[in-house]
Design brief:
Layout lengths: L10 H15 L15 H13 L11 E13 L2 E8 L2 E8 H4 L1 H5 L9 E10 L5 E12 L9 E4 L6 E4 L5 H6 L1 H7 L1 H23 L3 E2 L5 E2 L11 E4 L4 E5 L4 H9 L4 E9 L11 E10 L3 H20 L3 E4 L2 E4 L5 E4 H9 L8 H10 L10 H12 L8 E4 L11 E2 L2 E5 L1 E6 L2 E8 L4 H16 L10 H9 L4 E7 H9 L18
Parallel strand pairs: 3-5, 8-12, 16-17
Antiparallel strand pairs: 1-2, 1-4, 2-3, 4-5, 6-7, 9-11, 10-11, 12-13, 13-22, 14-15, 17-20, 18-19, 20-21, 21-22
Helix pairs in contact: 6-7, 7-9, 7-15, 8-14, 10-12, 11-12, 13-14
Protein backbone atom coordinates (compact mmCIF):
# COMPACT_ATOMS: atom_id res chain seq x y z
CA UNK A 1 0.00 0.00 0.00
CA UNK A 2 1.20 3.51 -0.80
CA UNK A 3 -0.09 5.10 2.41
CA UNK A 4 -1.65 7.94 0.42
CA UNK A 5 -5.26 8.91 1.29
CA UNK A 6 -8.02 7.78 -1.04
CA UNK A 7 -8.76 10.28 -3.79
CA UNK A 8 -11.95 12.29 -3.34
CA UNK A 9 -14.30 11.56 -6.28
CA UNK A 10 -14.88 14.43 -8.70
CA UNK A 11 -18.29 15.84 -9.59
CA UNK A 12 -18.25 13.84 -12.83
CA UNK A 13 -17.36 10.64 -11.00
CA UNK A 14 -20.14 11.20 -8.47
CA UNK A 15 -22.61 11.63 -11.35
CA UNK A 16 -21.42 8.38 -12.89
CA UNK A 17 -21.74 6.55 -9.58
CA UNK A 18 -25.33 7.79 -9.35
CA UNK A 19 -26.00 6.32 -12.80
CA UNK A 20 -24.47 3.06 -11.58
CA UNK A 21 -26.95 2.92 -8.72
CA UNK A 22 -29.87 3.68 -11.05
CA UNK A 23 -28.82 0.79 -13.31
CA UNK A 24 -28.65 -1.59 -10.37
CA UNK A 25 -32.02 -0.38 -9.09
CA UNK A 26 -33.46 -1.35 -12.49
CA UNK A 27 -32.00 -4.84 -12.15
CA UNK A 28 -29.20 -4.26 -14.66
CA UNK A 29 -25.74 -5.56 -13.74
CA UNK A 30 -23.27 -2.86 -14.89
CA UNK A 31 -20.29 -5.22 -14.81
CA UNK A 32 -21.03 -8.21 -17.04
CA UNK A 33 -19.48 -11.67 -16.82
CA UNK A 34 -19.01 -12.22 -20.57
CA UNK A 35 -20.24 -11.32 -24.03
CA UNK A 36 -20.02 -13.38 -27.20
CA UNK A 37 -18.01 -11.42 -29.78
CA UNK A 38 -18.08 -12.62 -33.39
CA UNK A 39 -16.69 -9.59 -35.25
CA UNK A 40 -14.00 -6.94 -34.77
CA UNK A 41 -14.40 -3.31 -35.78
CA UNK A 42 -11.89 -2.66 -38.56
CA UNK A 43 -11.83 -6.15 -40.16
CA UNK A 44 -15.63 -6.31 -40.30
CA UNK A 45 -15.86 -2.92 -42.02
CA UNK A 46 -13.17 -3.95 -44.53
CA UNK A 47 -14.92 -7.27 -45.22
CA UNK A 48 -18.26 -5.50 -45.77
CA UNK A 49 -16.68 -3.09 -48.25
CA UNK A 50 -15.19 -6.03 -50.17
CA UNK A 51 -18.60 -7.71 -50.33
CA UNK A 52 -20.15 -4.44 -51.52
CA UNK A 53 -17.54 -4.11 -54.25
CA UNK A 54 -18.30 -7.67 -55.37
CA UNK A 55 -22.04 -7.00 -55.33
CA UNK A 56 -22.56 -9.66 -52.66
CA UNK A 57 -24.38 -7.61 -49.99
CA UNK A 58 -28.00 -8.78 -49.77
CA UNK A 59 -30.75 -6.32 -48.79
CA UNK A 60 -28.10 -3.67 -48.14
CA UNK A 61 -26.83 -5.23 -44.93
CA UNK A 62 -24.54 -7.96 -43.64
CA UNK A 63 -25.62 -11.06 -41.73
CA UNK A 64 -26.09 -10.52 -38.02
CA UNK A 65 -22.95 -10.30 -35.88
CA UNK A 66 -21.81 -9.02 -32.51
CA UNK A 67 -19.19 -6.44 -31.56
CA UNK A 68 -17.79 -5.27 -28.22
CA UNK A 69 -15.60 -2.32 -27.32
CA UNK A 70 -15.29 0.97 -25.54
CA UNK A 71 -17.79 3.74 -26.24
CA UNK A 72 -15.73 6.72 -27.41
CA UNK A 73 -18.39 8.83 -29.11
CA UNK A 74 -22.11 9.42 -28.61
CA UNK A 75 -24.40 11.70 -30.67
CA UNK A 76 -28.13 11.73 -29.99
CA UNK A 77 -30.79 12.83 -32.50
CA UNK A 78 -34.14 12.36 -30.77
CA UNK A 79 -35.28 8.84 -31.52
CA UNK A 80 -31.89 7.74 -32.82
CA UNK A 81 -28.31 7.87 -31.59
CA UNK A 82 -24.96 7.33 -33.26
CA UNK A 83 -22.10 5.98 -31.18
CA UNK A 84 -18.48 5.09 -31.87
CA UNK A 85 -17.31 1.72 -30.59
CA UNK A 86 -13.55 1.14 -30.38
CA UNK A 87 -11.81 -2.21 -29.99
CA UNK A 88 -8.18 -3.23 -30.46
CA UNK A 89 -8.53 -3.12 -34.27
CA UNK A 90 -10.07 0.34 -34.62
CA UNK A 91 -13.49 1.99 -34.57
CA UNK A 92 -16.92 1.27 -36.03
CA UNK A 93 -19.96 3.53 -35.91
CA UNK A 94 -23.08 2.12 -34.23
CA UNK A 95 -26.64 3.21 -35.07
CA UNK A 96 -29.09 2.86 -32.17
CA UNK A 97 -32.78 3.45 -32.89
CA UNK A 98 -35.64 3.63 -30.37
CA UNK A 99 -38.16 1.72 -32.46
CA UNK A 100 -35.65 -1.12 -32.98
CA UNK A 101 -34.26 -1.43 -29.45
CA UNK A 102 -37.53 -0.62 -27.72
CA UNK A 103 -38.26 2.44 -25.61
CA UNK A 104 -37.03 0.90 -22.35
CA UNK A 105 -33.68 -0.27 -23.73
CA UNK A 106 -33.18 2.96 -25.68
CA UNK A 107 -33.76 5.01 -22.51
CA UNK A 108 -30.73 3.30 -20.96
CA UNK A 109 -28.51 5.37 -23.25
CA UNK A 110 -29.06 8.25 -20.84
CA UNK A 111 -27.14 6.17 -18.29
CA UNK A 112 -24.23 5.44 -20.64
CA UNK A 113 -21.04 7.53 -20.66
CA UNK A 114 -17.97 7.81 -22.85
CA UNK A 115 -15.51 5.16 -21.72
CA UNK A 116 -18.16 2.53 -20.96
CA UNK A 117 -17.62 -0.92 -22.45
CA UNK A 118 -20.64 -2.04 -24.48
CA UNK A 119 -21.66 -4.97 -26.65
CA UNK A 120 -23.98 -4.71 -29.63
CA UNK A 121 -25.68 -7.27 -31.84
CA UNK A 122 -26.75 -6.15 -35.29
CA UNK A 123 -26.00 -5.83 -39.00
CA UNK A 124 -23.57 -3.71 -40.98
CA UNK A 125 -25.03 -1.29 -43.52
CA UNK A 126 -23.95 1.92 -45.23
CA UNK A 127 -25.61 5.16 -44.09
CA UNK A 128 -26.84 7.87 -46.44
CA UNK A 129 -23.69 9.77 -45.47
CA UNK A 130 -21.68 6.83 -46.83
CA UNK A 131 -20.28 5.41 -43.58
CA UNK A 132 -20.28 1.68 -42.87
CA UNK A 133 -22.20 1.35 -39.60
CA UNK A 134 -23.62 -1.29 -37.25
CA UNK A 135 -27.43 -1.10 -37.07
CA UNK A 136 -27.94 -2.39 -33.53
CA UNK A 137 -30.73 -4.87 -32.78
CA UNK A 138 -29.59 -5.19 -29.17
CA UNK A 139 -27.07 -3.53 -26.88
CA UNK A 140 -25.61 -4.46 -23.52
CA UNK A 141 -23.54 -2.59 -20.95
CA UNK A 142 -20.43 -4.67 -20.22
CA UNK A 143 -18.52 -2.43 -17.80
CA UNK A 144 -19.41 1.00 -16.45
CA UNK A 145 -16.59 3.56 -16.56
CA UNK A 146 -16.73 5.48 -13.28
CA UNK A 147 -13.69 7.63 -13.98
CA UNK A 148 -13.88 9.74 -17.16
CA UNK A 149 -11.20 8.95 -19.70
CA UNK A 150 -9.01 11.87 -20.82
CA UNK A 151 -10.40 11.64 -24.35
CA UNK A 152 -9.19 14.17 -26.89
CA UNK A 153 -11.24 15.93 -29.50
CA UNK A 154 -11.22 15.73 -33.28
CA UNK A 155 -11.64 18.90 -35.34
CA UNK A 156 -12.61 18.56 -39.01
CA UNK A 157 -11.63 21.22 -41.54
CA UNK A 158 -14.85 22.20 -43.34
CA UNK A 159 -13.00 23.10 -46.53
CA UNK A 160 -10.56 20.21 -46.90
CA UNK A 161 -12.34 17.52 -44.94
CA UNK A 162 -9.08 16.79 -43.12
CA UNK A 163 -9.10 16.11 -39.39
CA UNK A 164 -6.78 16.87 -36.51
CA UNK A 165 -6.85 15.13 -33.14
CA UNK A 166 -6.09 17.03 -29.95
CA UNK A 167 -5.03 14.77 -27.11
CA UNK A 168 -6.80 15.09 -23.79
CA UNK A 169 -3.87 13.39 -22.08
CA UNK A 170 -0.70 15.23 -22.98
CA UNK A 171 1.30 15.27 -19.72
CA UNK A 172 3.99 12.62 -20.24
CA UNK A 173 4.59 11.87 -16.57
CA UNK A 174 0.89 11.22 -15.99
CA UNK A 175 0.70 9.09 -19.13
CA UNK A 176 3.56 6.89 -17.88
CA UNK A 177 1.98 6.52 -14.43
CA UNK A 178 -1.46 5.76 -15.84
CA UNK A 179 -0.44 3.70 -18.85
CA UNK A 180 -3.84 1.99 -18.82
CA UNK A 181 -5.50 5.36 -19.58
CA UNK A 182 -2.75 6.28 -22.06
CA UNK A 183 -3.39 3.07 -24.00
CA UNK A 184 -7.14 3.58 -23.85
CA UNK A 185 -7.11 7.03 -25.46
CA UNK A 186 -4.00 6.98 -27.68
CA UNK A 187 -4.10 4.47 -30.56
CA UNK A 188 -0.53 5.42 -31.50
CA UNK A 189 0.70 4.25 -28.10
CA UNK A 190 -1.07 0.92 -28.55
CA UNK A 191 0.65 0.56 -31.92
CA UNK A 192 4.09 1.10 -30.35
CA UNK A 193 3.56 -1.86 -28.04
CA UNK A 194 2.18 -4.01 -30.83
CA UNK A 195 5.36 -3.24 -32.75
CA UNK A 196 7.40 -4.12 -29.69
CA UNK A 197 5.69 -7.51 -29.55
CA UNK A 198 6.48 -8.01 -33.25
CA UNK A 199 10.17 -7.18 -32.63
CA UNK A 200 10.45 -9.69 -29.77
CA UNK A 201 8.59 -12.40 -31.70
CA UNK A 202 10.78 -11.81 -34.77
CA UNK A 203 13.99 -12.08 -32.74
CA UNK A 204 12.75 -15.30 -31.16
CA UNK A 205 11.76 -16.80 -34.53
CA UNK A 206 15.06 -15.71 -36.12
CA UNK A 207 17.10 -17.55 -33.49
CA UNK A 208 14.78 -20.56 -33.34
CA UNK A 209 15.18 -20.99 -37.10
CA UNK A 210 18.97 -21.06 -36.64
CA UNK A 211 18.74 -23.87 -34.10
CA UNK A 212 19.17 -21.78 -30.95
CA UNK A 213 17.51 -23.07 -27.78
CA UNK A 214 15.57 -20.60 -25.62
CA UNK A 215 16.45 -21.02 -21.94
CA UNK A 216 15.79 -19.37 -18.58
CA UNK A 217 18.51 -18.46 -16.09
CA UNK A 218 18.28 -17.08 -12.53
CA UNK A 219 17.06 -13.55 -11.87
CA UNK A 220 18.21 -13.76 -8.25
CA UNK A 221 21.94 -14.46 -8.20
CA UNK A 222 24.47 -14.96 -5.38
CA UNK A 223 27.14 -13.14 -7.43
CA UNK A 224 26.29 -10.62 -10.10
CA UNK A 225 28.36 -10.38 -13.26
CA UNK A 226 28.43 -10.30 -17.03
CA UNK A 227 28.52 -6.50 -17.16
CA UNK A 228 29.96 -3.49 -15.37
CA UNK A 229 27.09 -2.01 -13.38
CA UNK A 230 25.70 -1.48 -9.88
CA UNK A 231 23.17 -4.14 -8.80
CA UNK A 232 19.99 -4.13 -6.75
CA UNK A 233 20.58 -6.02 -3.51
CA UNK A 234 18.06 -8.10 -1.57
CA UNK A 235 18.03 -10.62 1.26
CA UNK A 236 16.67 -14.16 1.22
CA UNK A 237 15.36 -14.63 4.75
CA UNK A 238 15.05 -18.43 4.76
CA UNK A 239 18.56 -18.95 3.39
CA UNK A 240 19.96 -15.98 5.32
CA UNK A 241 22.02 -14.81 2.37
CA UNK A 242 22.44 -11.75 0.20
CA UNK A 243 21.22 -12.03 -3.38
CA UNK A 244 21.39 -9.66 -6.34
CA UNK A 245 18.98 -8.97 -9.17
CA UNK A 246 20.89 -9.91 -12.29
CA UNK A 247 22.60 -7.20 -14.30
CA UNK A 248 23.21 -9.56 -17.25
CA UNK A 249 22.59 -13.17 -18.29
CA UNK A 250 26.01 -13.86 -19.76
CA UNK A 251 27.76 -16.02 -17.19
CA UNK A 252 24.86 -18.45 -16.76
CA UNK A 253 24.33 -18.77 -20.51
CA UNK A 254 28.00 -19.63 -21.03
CA UNK A 255 27.72 -22.26 -18.29
CA UNK A 256 25.12 -23.89 -20.55
CA UNK A 257 27.56 -23.89 -23.47
CA UNK A 258 29.99 -25.74 -21.17
CA UNK A 259 27.20 -28.23 -20.53
CA UNK A 260 26.81 -29.02 -24.23
CA UNK A 261 23.93 -26.75 -25.25
CA UNK A 262 25.87 -25.20 -28.08
CA UNK A 263 23.39 -22.49 -29.19
CA UNK A 264 21.35 -20.78 -26.48
CA UNK A 265 19.47 -17.53 -26.03
CA UNK A 266 17.38 -15.74 -23.44
CA UNK A 267 15.01 -12.77 -23.63
CA UNK A 268 15.03 -11.47 -20.10
CA UNK A 269 14.52 -8.66 -17.65
CA UNK A 270 17.78 -7.30 -16.26
CA UNK A 271 18.22 -4.71 -13.51
CA UNK A 272 20.85 -2.04 -12.90
CA UNK A 273 20.77 0.30 -9.93
CA UNK A 274 21.76 3.38 -11.87
CA UNK A 275 20.40 6.66 -13.18
CA UNK A 276 17.33 7.17 -15.34
CA UNK A 277 17.46 9.10 -18.60
CA UNK A 278 16.17 8.92 -22.18
CA UNK A 279 18.03 5.67 -22.84
CA UNK A 280 18.22 4.06 -19.39
CA UNK A 281 15.61 2.46 -17.16
CA UNK A 282 16.62 0.41 -14.07
CA UNK A 283 14.53 -2.53 -15.34
CA UNK A 284 15.07 -3.32 -19.00
CA UNK A 285 14.79 -6.14 -21.54
CA UNK A 286 17.82 -7.87 -23.04
CA UNK A 287 18.25 -10.49 -25.70
CA UNK A 288 21.46 -12.49 -25.21
CA UNK A 289 22.56 -15.35 -27.44
CA UNK A 290 25.68 -17.53 -27.51
CA UNK A 291 27.00 -19.84 -30.22
CA UNK A 292 29.73 -22.42 -29.77
CA UNK A 293 32.60 -22.56 -32.29
CA UNK A 294 32.00 -18.95 -33.43
CA UNK A 295 33.99 -15.75 -32.90
CA UNK A 296 32.99 -12.09 -32.98
CA UNK A 297 33.39 -11.88 -36.75
CA UNK A 298 30.75 -14.56 -37.25
CA UNK A 299 28.50 -12.92 -34.66
CA UNK A 300 28.78 -9.59 -36.52
CA UNK A 301 27.32 -11.22 -39.61
CA UNK A 302 24.55 -12.77 -37.53
CA UNK A 303 23.73 -9.42 -35.86
CA UNK A 304 23.49 -7.70 -39.26
CA UNK A 305 21.02 -10.31 -40.45
CA UNK A 306 19.04 -10.07 -37.20
CA UNK A 307 18.66 -6.29 -37.45
CA UNK A 308 17.58 -6.49 -41.08
CA UNK A 309 14.86 -8.93 -39.98
CA UNK A 310 13.77 -6.71 -37.08
CA UNK A 311 13.58 -3.58 -39.23
CA UNK A 312 11.57 -5.34 -41.93
CA UNK A 313 9.19 -6.84 -39.39
CA UNK A 314 8.60 -3.52 -37.63
CA UNK A 315 8.33 -1.22 -40.64
CA UNK A 316 8.27 -3.34 -43.77
CA UNK A 317 11.62 -1.87 -44.78
CA UNK A 318 15.25 -1.61 -43.72
CA UNK A 319 14.75 2.17 -43.69
CA UNK A 320 13.39 4.06 -40.71
CA UNK A 321 13.40 7.56 -39.25
CA UNK A 322 14.50 8.41 -35.72
CA UNK A 323 14.00 11.95 -34.41
CA UNK A 324 14.37 13.42 -37.88
CA UNK A 325 17.36 11.27 -38.92
CA UNK A 326 16.99 8.74 -41.74
CA UNK A 327 18.48 5.40 -40.66
CA UNK A 328 19.22 2.51 -43.03
CA UNK A 329 19.79 -1.06 -41.89
CA UNK A 330 20.94 -2.15 -45.34
CA UNK A 331 23.95 -4.47 -45.13
CA UNK A 332 26.86 -4.19 -44.73
CA UNK A 333 27.07 -1.94 -41.68
CA UNK A 334 30.05 0.40 -41.29
CA UNK A 335 32.97 -0.93 -39.19
CA UNK A 336 35.41 1.29 -37.27
CA UNK A 337 38.15 0.73 -34.70
CA UNK A 338 37.39 1.95 -31.16
CA UNK A 339 40.97 3.13 -30.62
CA UNK A 340 41.38 4.72 -34.05
CA UNK A 341 38.08 6.59 -33.79
CA UNK A 342 38.96 7.91 -30.34
CA UNK A 343 42.49 8.82 -31.45
CA UNK A 344 40.99 10.87 -34.28
CA UNK A 345 38.78 12.74 -31.82
CA UNK A 346 41.58 13.32 -29.28
CA UNK A 347 44.34 14.07 -31.77
CA UNK A 348 46.53 11.49 -30.01
CA UNK A 349 46.71 7.74 -29.39
CA UNK A 350 44.66 7.12 -26.21
CA UNK A 351 46.67 3.96 -25.51
CA UNK A 352 49.79 6.12 -25.17
CA UNK A 353 48.41 9.17 -23.34
CA UNK A 354 49.03 9.27 -19.56
CA UNK A 355 46.03 8.12 -17.52
CA UNK A 356 45.87 11.47 -15.73
CA UNK A 357 45.57 13.30 -19.03
CA UNK A 358 42.72 11.01 -20.04
CA UNK A 359 41.07 11.72 -16.70
CA UNK A 360 41.54 15.47 -17.10
CA UNK A 361 40.02 15.43 -20.57
CA UNK A 362 37.08 13.31 -19.41
CA UNK A 363 36.41 15.64 -16.48
CA UNK A 364 36.63 18.61 -18.82
CA UNK A 365 33.84 17.09 -20.91
CA UNK A 366 31.62 16.64 -17.87
CA UNK A 367 32.02 12.87 -17.53
CA UNK A 368 31.02 11.44 -14.15
CA UNK A 369 31.49 8.21 -12.14
CA UNK A 370 35.26 8.36 -12.59
CA UNK A 371 36.23 7.16 -9.09
CA UNK A 372 38.84 4.43 -9.44
CA UNK A 373 38.59 4.54 -13.23
CA UNK A 374 41.55 3.09 -15.12
CA UNK A 375 42.65 3.72 -18.68
CA UNK A 376 39.93 1.57 -20.24
CA UNK A 377 37.01 3.18 -18.44
CA UNK A 378 38.37 6.68 -19.09
CA UNK A 379 38.69 5.86 -22.78
CA UNK A 380 35.13 4.58 -22.76
CA UNK A 381 33.89 7.81 -21.17
CA UNK A 382 35.76 9.89 -23.75
CA UNK A 383 34.43 7.75 -26.59
CA UNK A 384 30.90 8.30 -25.31
CA UNK A 385 31.36 12.07 -25.34
CA UNK A 386 33.42 12.55 -28.50
CA UNK A 387 32.64 9.73 -30.93
CA UNK A 388 29.37 8.04 -30.05
CA UNK A 389 26.99 10.97 -30.84
CA UNK A 390 28.20 10.96 -34.46
CA UNK A 391 27.42 7.28 -35.06
CA UNK A 392 24.05 7.85 -36.72
CA UNK A 393 24.00 5.02 -39.27
CA UNK A 394 24.43 1.43 -38.01
CA UNK A 395 28.12 1.11 -37.12
CA UNK A 396 30.14 -1.69 -35.57
CA UNK A 397 32.80 -0.33 -33.20
CA UNK A 398 35.56 -2.94 -32.89
CA UNK A 399 38.39 -3.96 -30.60
CA UNK A 400 38.00 -2.20 -27.26
CA UNK A 401 40.70 -1.97 -24.58
CA UNK A 402 41.06 -5.29 -22.80
CA UNK A 403 40.48 -3.62 -19.41
CA UNK A 404 36.96 -2.70 -20.59
CA UNK A 405 36.22 -6.27 -21.62
CA UNK A 406 37.15 -8.73 -18.86
CA UNK A 407 35.05 -11.51 -20.40
CA UNK A 408 36.42 -11.22 -23.96
CA UNK A 409 39.38 -12.95 -25.61
CA UNK A 410 42.41 -10.77 -26.43
CA UNK A 411 42.56 -9.57 -30.01
CA UNK A 412 44.78 -11.69 -32.19
CA UNK A 413 47.96 -9.70 -32.85
CA UNK A 414 47.03 -6.92 -30.38
CA UNK A 415 46.85 -8.39 -26.86
CA UNK A 416 46.12 -4.98 -25.26
CA UNK A 417 42.76 -5.02 -27.03
CA UNK A 418 39.79 -7.38 -26.90
CA UNK A 419 37.85 -9.12 -29.66
CA UNK A 420 34.69 -7.17 -28.99
CA UNK A 421 32.22 -5.12 -30.96
CA UNK A 422 29.41 -2.77 -30.11
CA UNK A 423 26.67 -1.83 -32.58
CA UNK A 424 25.61 1.81 -32.60
CA UNK A 425 22.86 3.63 -34.49
CA UNK A 426 21.30 7.06 -33.92
CA UNK A 427 24.17 7.73 -31.51
CA UNK A 428 23.22 4.94 -29.10
CA UNK A 429 24.54 1.48 -28.33
CA UNK A 430 22.17 -1.28 -29.47
CA UNK A 431 24.30 -4.42 -29.09
CA UNK A 432 27.52 -5.66 -27.51
CA UNK A 433 29.44 -8.84 -28.37
CA UNK A 434 32.66 -10.77 -27.73
CA UNK A 435 34.77 -13.64 -28.80
CA UNK A 436 34.23 -15.11 -25.34
CA UNK A 437 37.24 -15.66 -23.10
CA UNK A 438 37.39 -19.42 -22.48
CA UNK A 439 40.78 -19.77 -20.74
CA UNK A 440 39.99 -20.24 -17.01
CA UNK A 441 43.47 -19.13 -15.91
CA UNK A 442 43.24 -15.92 -17.93
CA UNK A 443 39.67 -15.38 -16.71
CA UNK A 444 40.75 -15.59 -13.08
CA UNK A 445 43.48 -13.02 -13.77
CA UNK A 446 40.91 -10.71 -15.39
CA UNK A 447 38.57 -11.06 -12.41
CA UNK A 448 41.46 -10.24 -10.08
CA UNK A 449 42.19 -7.12 -12.14
CA UNK A 450 38.54 -6.16 -11.71
CA UNK A 451 38.80 -6.76 -7.97
CA UNK A 452 41.73 -4.34 -7.85
CA UNK A 453 39.63 -1.71 -9.64
CA UNK A 454 36.82 -2.26 -7.11
CA UNK A 455 39.27 -1.81 -4.28
CA UNK A 456 40.39 1.46 -5.89
CA UNK A 457 36.79 2.74 -5.85
CA UNK A 458 35.26 1.57 -9.14
CA UNK A 459 31.84 0.35 -7.94
CA UNK A 460 30.99 -0.97 -11.42
CA UNK A 461 33.95 -3.36 -11.67
CA UNK A 462 33.00 -7.03 -11.75
CA UNK A 463 33.24 -9.53 -8.90
CA UNK A 464 35.26 -12.75 -8.85
CA UNK A 465 32.89 -15.63 -9.65
CA UNK A 466 34.55 -18.85 -8.51
CA UNK A 467 31.73 -21.07 -9.78
CA UNK A 468 32.00 -19.56 -13.26
CA UNK A 469 35.74 -20.23 -13.26
CA UNK A 470 35.01 -23.81 -12.18
CA UNK A 471 32.68 -24.15 -15.18
CA UNK A 472 35.42 -22.87 -17.52
CA UNK A 473 37.79 -25.45 -16.06
CA UNK A 474 35.51 -28.17 -17.44
CA UNK A 475 36.05 -26.62 -20.88
CA UNK A 476 34.21 -23.87 -22.75
CA UNK A 477 34.57 -24.31 -26.52
CA UNK A 478 35.29 -21.26 -28.68
CA UNK A 479 32.14 -19.17 -28.34
CA UNK A 480 30.69 -15.95 -29.70
CA UNK A 481 28.16 -14.07 -27.59
CA UNK A 482 25.88 -11.08 -28.19
CA UNK A 483 23.64 -8.89 -26.05
CA UNK A 484 20.95 -6.71 -27.67
CA UNK A 485 19.01 -3.98 -25.84
CA UNK A 486 15.42 -4.65 -26.89
CA UNK A 487 14.04 -1.39 -25.50
CA UNK A 488 16.49 0.75 -27.47
CA UNK A 489 15.86 -1.22 -30.64
CA UNK A 490 12.12 -0.62 -30.26
CA UNK A 491 12.76 3.08 -29.59
CA UNK A 492 14.66 3.34 -32.85
CA UNK A 493 12.20 1.35 -34.96
CA UNK A 494 9.15 3.24 -33.63
CA UNK A 495 10.78 6.69 -33.49
CA UNK A 496 10.19 7.19 -29.76
CA UNK A 497 12.31 9.83 -28.02
CA UNK A 498 12.45 8.15 -24.59
CA UNK A 499 12.89 4.59 -23.36
CA UNK A 500 9.85 5.22 -21.16
CA UNK A 501 7.76 5.43 -24.34
CA UNK A 502 8.49 1.77 -25.15
CA UNK A 503 8.23 0.25 -21.64
CA UNK A 504 4.64 -0.27 -20.56
CA UNK A 505 5.25 0.61 -16.92
CA UNK A 506 8.61 2.43 -16.61
CA UNK A 507 10.30 3.21 -13.31
CA UNK A 508 9.35 6.69 -12.08
CA UNK A 509 10.04 8.85 -9.08
CA UNK A 510 7.43 8.65 -6.33
CA UNK A 511 4.31 10.65 -7.13
CA UNK A 512 3.87 13.79 -5.10
Amino acid sequence: MSGRPAEEPSRVMRARMEKLEVLRAQGIEPFAYSFGVTLRAAPSVAAFEELEAAGSVEDGQSPQGSWAGRLVGLRSHGGSTFGDLEDHTGRVQVYLKRNVLGAEAYALLDLFDLGDWIGVVGHLFRTRAGQVTVRADRMELLAKSLRPLPLGKVEVDAETGGSRTYSGFSDRETRYRQRYADLAVNPGVRQVFRTRAVVVATARRFLDDLGFLEVETPVLQPIYGGASARPFVTRHNALDRTLYLRIADELYLKRLIVGGLDRVYEISKDFRNEGIDRFHNPEFTMLEFYQAFADYEEMMDLVERLFVSLANAANGSTECSFQGEAISFERPFTRISFVDALAGALGADPMELPVEELRSRAEGLGAHDLDGAGRGKLMDKLFGELVQPGLVQPTFVLDHPRELSPLAKPKRGAPGLAERFELYAAGEELANAFSELNDPIAQRARFEDQAALRAAGDAEAQMVDEDYIRALEYGLPPTGGVGVGIDRVVMLLTDRASIRDVILFPTLREAE
